[in-house]
């Protein structure tokens, strides 16, 4: 069978690989379980003792070696549990999962029950322990509660135990006195376990419960138990894909079915129960966290609930697969496994009454904590919502309602005050009713999930308070007698079509499972319907693709995102960066050379089918929600398989056994005859038929070292089959198993090697070898963690550099952009997450949710002590300040970790430590100080040793240096990730006005003022104190600064002021902007302006400030090679005259830059003001055009400006209009003339003293905004004034050149140009 698990090797057809019995070893006696954290203050009955694997059959399976220690620990996670006759001893069921080294999974299903202890040594040992405990703790001689053990069986108990009636007074009196061997009967837990290659949970549960029923029944079973165990191990095959199979338990037949090749893979864990436990909204939120590969910790007292939720969530990921640590049941003794600095999905068993706030987790910055018992979850910060979430939840609710599960919206269940509960859609019937149904379900082995309706529910609630009836139910179940009336309520009687209640319930669960999964699968089919169009397949063959994989881009992320609806982007931009998505795309690329991965084949088939029915034009994406249309069809396929059984396995039969062994004793599981269970039959038809072909397939598989796992079992091998599972106790995968023959170098072998090494990011650690606690293994595992984190850092910084440099290259005129602001933000958020994981690795003691912020706080406390001791250093600071005052300029801002920490602490908008740490990272990255700050932080080795264990990443010197070097490389690009995110905070700005002292007074006697504007607003007009050339002011974040308005009121004797530039610095980010001026402010000098609008540019840091930051990119808005405007430093210095060709090139470049600006996404565009009024902007280029051939010679010592020509031309037009000369012109030309006159009049009548060049700038900006420039030019050219003011050779008098200019300017008519308020202040048009 091609679809089966490869790890099944020689006999993949077998339904079960092992049958295991775990319990107490009477030869070794009672051994305390050190791993469980022994508490000697507890009563011996409440302590945990070591369990052992008493027997397992067969001894070993070649294709799935038996791991004794792992199976023992997972069968009895809390060891042995003891009880007396006074305690509840209901059998319990749970399941577990083991992920093997090749990434394939094996499932275990465990039925745990209590068996009377017959060994007098064990009883006397318990008696001795109890007497010692009484002597040491006399106060505990009369306990207030029963002696019921709180160890493994309590933790396994579901809500049934909560519903158990309180023991009667007689029982209580026995229990109160503890354990007395002469009076009490001692019971110990025993576990029966089936280990299978596929998760047929319901079938295994029924088989094991029938085995237990056989030993508790008053009469022996029809056949010896060996017959049934031998049958399921060797004679029951796996059902073929798309078929159903019936086999026989001890008393009743059992049916299981397997989906066909085109259906969703098998998933037998009840999804309805997962929704009941968490609620619809909580489950969707948890599902989103899983997709985004966050750290997920499930928390519950019930092991089966941990497994159900974990399997439910991973099942819903189709067509993607969880690529990281997956341990649904993590014993409490191994809590330190959570120290793994990687994404994980783990389940942790909680102790009854444990407060969540006391649970110290190593890292919580990116943790989704799921408290299953209290029905609530805690989400990480900055959490994007799943697309169309309200409609998605509504559709899930509709499916659940059809199956009688009632969502109660807006009613969060009770949670502990320590957490944030986000549950707005919990599922329940009624609080009391839920307990009733769960109790009845457990008592009757009924999987109905408590979904009873109407009179049945009312009747059940009525009966719930009756303790006697509940005891009767439990008793009748154990003895095999059915109470028909109650079984009718529970669904255990005959159903429709002669099917039993069990079969009806399994059918109902299977239909609910598949319909819920189809709703989830449909969302991905809709969202990724066109994903193939964005897959980049550039390699000619598999070998070259594998060799160059890390250097290749496999998916056009930017184009894909630009094709998605806006509401989807926050989620999708994060999701396409995950390992599971990368694996999915890699599998798609490899499918052109190899057989398609099963999940991919099913998904592509669904997309092809959807296209047939729903032809959609490419690139037209809609965010309208599309419901799943195949719910009925998918449920019918399952119903047909279960109604019509395709295959029936061989019936259990008598074996060739020794007579007299394994005699039946009621209540005791017999010692099985191992010789008949160790080997399979040699005459089985199905085993003979498939063995030869399978051996051939197996040899081929081993020769190629390629794993073809079953579609529902395969753990994606690409990147990471299963990511490192813990800081310790994890087995390192040293090498591939030796092939049968020396293999050829095949594509598959390359593929496997590549999957294990090239893409692993340190993820080539495998699942836990729970028994191997040797220091060598622990050290090697920790070392692999360190290497993995370093590799992840290298890849993240490389990706950030490549994407950012690609974008900046576009802005300099090369290539195409391949990053959006959304992508950039996603990459930075990913870097923040990586730094948190690095700082969480190997912590001595966890303090707060953010390990990085905690470290910074320790650093701050130490530095503040040092600052107090060095108070005298203020004198030298004062001297330094005086020195800077002598040479006017921006004072140097030295890098300071402390200063940046204080800036973040002063931001009241950030409420959490995780938020503060992320803000600090963003600020340091924007300042190009991230590497330098972290190096400074880690230079305090004493502090690092105090906070971190020896194996921590931050204490590995070589790796730490490489890590800091990778971060240093980010200094080569400019980020505004702090300024653009924290847009509402108050920021201190420092402004300095730098005059040209050689040609004018440094000070002015008039009253100067300034107004600073940025992309997010302006500061308003601020008066500058007289005789002061610098000022500091606080203002809301202005974003990137764009303009400064500088002016004065022209009062006093020295009113004329020649300003070289204005410098403004953001005191938090350190960004300094230079606003060049080089012009006079004053009446009767230059163009008579008292006010100028200066356009800013980000200034390069000084050599002293740039120390330790590395290099930076050229300025973003222009190419370094372009001609730069010369600052005017003298009255006659306006003489820089470019050639005609340079002027035309400059105009073309300026218009081209504006067009590019509008072709970017709106949030990416930056400042249009710089493109209009900057040093090589449109205004400057047109100014050069109008100045070409302009007769600006001084007439009677008066300089003539272009604005003078415009005014004369307008005056001519107005006078011609009054004389009637323009009445003969065409109507549009007349309207254009009127508009030009109106605009010039409005500019001249403004209250602002902006000077003639300022007025010309304003006219060009307004003309560009209102798309009038191409219409105004012909009027100016036709005006007779041009002949007096321009030479014959002027560009403005060349008709061909003017027509070309008009054509170029007309391209701006397609764009909605908006002007900054600082440019058009005071203009009413």
UniProtKB/TrEMBL annotation:
Presence of the UniProt keyword Repeat in the record: yes
UniProt name for this protein: DENN domain containing 5B
Family designation: Belongs to the RAB6IP1 family.
Stretch list, region Disordered: 134-173, 683-704
Comp. bias intervals (Polar residues): 683-693
Compositional bias ranges of the Low complexity kind: 139-159
Listed Pfam families: dDENN, DENN, PLAT, RUN, uDENN
Subcellular localization: Membrane
SUPFAM superfamilies: Lipase/lipooxygenase domain (PLAT/LH2 domain) (SSF49723), RUN domain-like (SSF140741)
Compositional bias of kind Basic residues: 694-703
RUN domain residues: 822-983, 1169-1318
Domain UDENN: 33-595
One Gene Ontology CC term in the entry: membrane
PANTHER family noted in UniProt: DENN DOMAIN-CONTAINING PROTEIN 5B (PTHR46070:SF3), PINSTRIPE, ISOFORM A (PTHR46070)
InterPro entries: cDENN_dom (IPR001194), dDENN_dom (IPR005112), DEN5A/B (IPR047278), DENN_C (IPR043153), PLAT/LH2_dom (IPR001024), PLAT/LH2_dom_sf (IPR036392), PLAT_RAB6IP1 (IPR047277), Run_dom (IPR004012)
PLAT domain location: 987-1095
Main location: membrane
Entry annotated with the keyword Methyltransferase: no
GO MF annotations in UniProt: guanyl-nucleotide exchange factor activity; small GTPase binding
Keywords assigned: Guanine-nucleotide releasing factor, Membrane, Repeat
CDD domains given in the database record: PLAT_RAB6IP1
């Amino acid at each position: 069978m091609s679809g089966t698990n490869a790890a099944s090797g020689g006999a993949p057809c077998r339904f079960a690989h092992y049958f295991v019995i775990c319990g107490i070893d009477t030869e070794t006696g009672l051994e305390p379980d050190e791993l469980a954290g022994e508490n000697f203050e507890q009563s011996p009955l409440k302590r945990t003792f070591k369990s052992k694997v008493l027997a397992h059959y067969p001894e070993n399976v070649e294709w799935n070696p038996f791991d004794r220690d792992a199976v023992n620990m997972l069968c009895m996670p809390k060891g042995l549990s003891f009880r007396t006759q006074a305690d509840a001893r209901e059998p319990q069921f749970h399941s577990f999962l083991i992920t093997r080294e090749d990434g394939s999974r094996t499932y275990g299903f465990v039925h745990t029950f209590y068996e009377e202890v017959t060994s007098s040594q064990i009883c006397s040992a318990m008696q001795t322990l109890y007497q010692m405990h009484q002597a040491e703790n006399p106060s505990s001689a009369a306990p207030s509660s029963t002696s019921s053990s709180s160890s493994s069986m309590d933790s396994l108990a579901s809500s049934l135990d909560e519903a158990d009636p309180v023991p009667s007074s007689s029982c209580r009196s026995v229990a109160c006195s503890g354990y007395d061997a002469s009076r009490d009967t001692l019971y110990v837990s025993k576990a029966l376990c089936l280990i299978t290659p596929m998760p047929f949970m319901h079938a295994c549960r029924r088989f094991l419960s029938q085995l237990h029923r056989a030993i508790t029944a008053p009469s022996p079973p029809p056949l010896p138990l060996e017959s049934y165990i031998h049958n399921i191990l060797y004679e029951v095959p796996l059902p073929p894909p798309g078929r159903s199979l019936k086999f026989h338990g001890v008393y009743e037949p059992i049916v299981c079915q397997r989906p066909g090749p085109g259906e969703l893979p098998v998933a037998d864990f009840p999804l309805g129960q997962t929704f009941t436990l968490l609620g619809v909204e909580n489950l969707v939120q948890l599902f989103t966290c899983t997709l985004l590969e966050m750290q997920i910790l499930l928390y519950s007292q019930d092991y089966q609930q941990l497994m159900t939720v974990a399997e439910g969530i991973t099942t819903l990921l189709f067509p993607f697969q969880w690529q990281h640590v997956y341990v649904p049941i993590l014993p409490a003794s191994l809590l330190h496994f959570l120290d793994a600095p990687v994404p994980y999905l783990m389940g942790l068993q909680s102790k009854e009454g444990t407060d969540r706030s006391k649970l110290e987790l190593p890292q919580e910055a990116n943790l989704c904590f799921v408290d299953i018992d209290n029905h609530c979850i805690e989400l990480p910060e900055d959490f994007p919502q799943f697309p169309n979430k309200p409609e998605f939840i509504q559709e899930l609710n509709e499916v659940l309602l059809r199956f009688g599960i009632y969502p109660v919206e807006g009613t969060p269940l009770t949670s502990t005050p320590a957490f944030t509960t986000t549950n707005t859609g919990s599922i329940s019937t009624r609080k009391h009713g839920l307990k009733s149904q769960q109790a009845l379900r457990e008592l009757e082995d009924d999987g109905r999930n408590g979904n009873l309706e109407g009179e049945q529910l009312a009747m059940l609630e009525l009966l719930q308070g009756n303790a006697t009836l509940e005891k009767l139910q439990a008793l009748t179940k154990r003895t095999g007698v059915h109470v028909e009336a109650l079984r009718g309520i529970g669904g255990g009687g005959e159903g429709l079509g002669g099917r039993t209640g069990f079969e009806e319930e399994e059918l109902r669960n299977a239909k609910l499972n598949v319909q819920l999964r189809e709703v989830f699968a449909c969302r991905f089919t809709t969202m990724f319907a066109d994903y193939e169009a964005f897959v980049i397949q550039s390699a000619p063959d598999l070998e070259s693709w594998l060799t160059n994989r890390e250097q290749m881009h496999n998916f056009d992320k930017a184009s894909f995102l630009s094709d998605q609806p806006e509401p989807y982007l926050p989620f999708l931009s994060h999701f396409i960066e995950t390992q599971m998505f990368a694996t999915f795309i890699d599998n798609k690329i490899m499918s052109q050379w190899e057989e398609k991965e099963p999940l991919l084949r099913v998904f592509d088939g669904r997309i092809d089918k959807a296209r047939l029915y729903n032809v959609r034009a490419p690139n037209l994406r809609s965010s309208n929600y599309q419901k799943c249309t195949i719910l009925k069809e998918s449920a019918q396929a399952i119903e047909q398989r279960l109604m019509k059984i395709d295959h029936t396995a061989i019936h259990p039969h008598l074996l060739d056994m020794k007579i007299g062994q394994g005699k039946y004793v009621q209540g005791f599981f017999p010692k099985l005859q191992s010789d008949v269970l160790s080997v399979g039959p040699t005459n089985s038809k199905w085993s003979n038929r498939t063995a030869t072909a399978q051996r051939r397939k197996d040899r081929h598989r081993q020769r190629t070292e390629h794993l073809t796992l079953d579609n529902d079992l395969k753990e994606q091998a690409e990147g990471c089959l299963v990511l490192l599972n813990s800081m310790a106790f994890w087995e390192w995968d040293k090498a591939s198993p030796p092939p049968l023959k020396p293999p050829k170098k095949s594509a598959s072998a390359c593929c496997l090697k590549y999957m294990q090494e090239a893409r692993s990011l340190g993820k080539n650690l495998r699942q836990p070898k729970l028994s191997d606690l040797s220091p060598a293994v622990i050290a090697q595992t920790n070392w692999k963690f360190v290497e993995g984190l370093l590799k992840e850092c290298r890849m993240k910084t490389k990706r950030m550099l490549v994407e950012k440099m690609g974008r900046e290259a576009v802005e300099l005129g090369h290539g195409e952009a391949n990053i959006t602001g959304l992508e950039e933000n996603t990459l930075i958020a990913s870097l923040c997450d990586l730094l948190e994981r690095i700082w969480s690795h190997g912590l001595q003691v966890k303090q707060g949710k953010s390990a990085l912020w905690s470290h910074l706080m320790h650093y701050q406390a130490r530095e503040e002590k040092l600052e107090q001791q060095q108070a005298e250093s203020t004198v030298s600071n004062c001297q330094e300040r005086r020195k800077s005052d002598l040479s006017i300029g921006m004072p140097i801002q030295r890098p300071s970790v402390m200063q940046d920490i204080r800036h973040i602490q002063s931001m009241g908008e950030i409420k959490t430590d995780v938020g503060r740490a992320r803000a600090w990272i963003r600020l340091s990255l924007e300042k190009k100080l991230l590497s330098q700050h972290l190096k400074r932080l880690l230079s305090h080795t004493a502090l690092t040793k105090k906070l971190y264990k020896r194996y921590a990443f931050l204490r590995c010197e070589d790796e730490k240096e490489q890590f800091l070097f990778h971060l240093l490389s980010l200094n080569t690009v400019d980020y505004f990730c702090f300024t653009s995110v924290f847009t509402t905070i108050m920021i201190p700005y420092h402004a300095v006005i730098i005059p040209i002292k050689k040609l004018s007074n440094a000070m002015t006697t008039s009253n100067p003022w300034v107004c600073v504007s940025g992309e997010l607003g302006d500061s308003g007009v601020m008066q500058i104190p007289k005789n002061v050339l610098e000022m500091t002011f606080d203002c809301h974040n202005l974003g990137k600064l764009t303009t400064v308005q500088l002016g004065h009121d022209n009062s006093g004797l020295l009113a004329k002021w020649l300003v070289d530039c204005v410098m403004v610095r953001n005191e938090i980010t350190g960004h300094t902007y230079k606003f060049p001026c080089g012009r006079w402010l004053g009446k009767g000098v230059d163009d008579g302006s008292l006010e100028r609008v200066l356009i800013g540019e980000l200034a390069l840091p000084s050599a002293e400030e740039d120390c330790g930051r590395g290099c930076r990119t050229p300025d973003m808005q222009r190419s370094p090679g372009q001609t730069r405007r010369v600052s005017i430093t003298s009255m006659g210095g306006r003489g820089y005259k470019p050639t005609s060709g340079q002027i035309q090139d400059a105009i073309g470049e300026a218009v081209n830059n504006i067009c590019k600006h509008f072709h970017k996404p709106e949030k990416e565009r930056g400042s249009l003001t710089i493109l209009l009024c900057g040093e090589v902007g449109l205004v400057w280029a047109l100014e050069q055009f109008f100045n070409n051939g302009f007769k600006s010679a001084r007439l009677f010592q008066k300089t003539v400006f272009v604005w003078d020509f415009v005014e004369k031309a307008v005056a001519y037009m107005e006078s011609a209009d009054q004389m009637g000369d323009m009445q003969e012109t065409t109507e549009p030309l007349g309207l254009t003339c009127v508009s030009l006159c109106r605009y010039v009049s409005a500019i001249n009548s403004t209250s602002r003293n902006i000077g003639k060049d300022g007025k010309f700038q304003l006219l060009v900006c307004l003309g560009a905004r209102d798309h009038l420039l191409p219409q105004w030019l012909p009027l100016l050219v036709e005006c007779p004034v041009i002949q007096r003011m321009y030479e014959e050779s002027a560009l403005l008098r060349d008709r061909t050149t003017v027509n070309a200019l008009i054509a170029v300017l007309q391209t701006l008519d397609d764009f909605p140009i908006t002007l900054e308020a600082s440019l058009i202040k005071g203009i009413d048009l």
